[in-house]
Predict the structure of PIG-L deacetylase family protein.
Amino acid sequence: MNVIAIGAHPDDIEIGAGGSIALHRARGDSVRFLILTRGGELSPPAKRETEAREAADVLDVDDIHVMGYDDTKVPYDNEIVKRIDDHLTEIDVDRAYIHTEEDTHQDHRHAALASIAAGRNTDEVLAFESPSTRSSFDPQYYNSLSEEFLERKIDAIRTHKSQREKKYLEAEAMKGLARFRGRQANTRYAEAFQVIRIREDQTATHELTTEMLD
């Protein structure tokens, strides 16, 4: 499976889908990170981009591309839709992990809209949550995580040292959310997603699990 994960800022992908990315790589799937901005909040953009690349290394991601839009100024127009679509076409993507529209951050919302438009022909599109996601986020799909893959997600988030002041990035916060989503999915830990499109009726299932790797 060819997978792409699209985040508005460095650390968005790790927060929303880091455990799932680790699972994909463990089963041999190809994964690309596409980050729309170089960040800038609390730290110079160059440092945040470096941290993003370190996080991608922790998760063993095949490659990472940074578009370079300004923080808080991700557009929603024909240009960004085409740029994202070019990446989807280049890797012949099977599944895309993207932001949800149910978010209070304008970059996240625009990233979601542009990704949905670009991924109109992609078989599977799943939207992840973030700390700024609204309570209206309604997941229908869960990836079950073992403790090993949850810890790998947390290790990737820890590479973003410039963001350490943010309490929601603490390990206990990540574990708490994973436990909450795990209870919903009848497993120990999980990441939750809204289904934008999926190839088959797999909602409310755990398509990626540790057992599948045995």
